[in-house]
Amino acid sequence: MHGGNGFRRVADQAIAALTVVVLALFAAMVTLVFVQIVDRFVPAFSWFWTEELVRALLVWSVMLGLPVVLYRHAEIVIDVLPLRGRLQRWRLALAALCSAVFLVLLAWHGLAFTQRSGGFPSPTLGIARTWLYAPIPLGAALGAIALLIRPRPEEIGT
Description:
Layout: H1 5-41, H2 50-71, H3 85-117, H4 130-133, H5 135-149
Helix pairs in contact: 1-2, 2-5, 3-5
């Protein structure tokens, strides 16, 4: 499934690039929240559109952060049925498969929703809502791919 070291190197670089994008989105959110604080206390300073942009950036950062978390095995695992050895590997594989199926369905329906709603402008930004909804199918699709190509936990850091 992994195709050797070349594939792994490309996948690792793609995840590193996506991490940089998510960090940039987060930095933009923090900056805009600071602008919102200033906006509330400084008279004649009104950037009303920052709240909607922060909300949009939050969705983008979460959905683009999803494949990063999944690829690195950094998701929160709730272990209510402790198993060992082969049974544990099968359970983790089944959980990854179920998660991938869910993400594919989310990507499919998210894309349909984005296409249906994209022609309408956002209230304050004035941009097509496509930009507000696009991270859902994109992040879900990338998350499903990340689940399928991610290294085994024992390969992380080697």
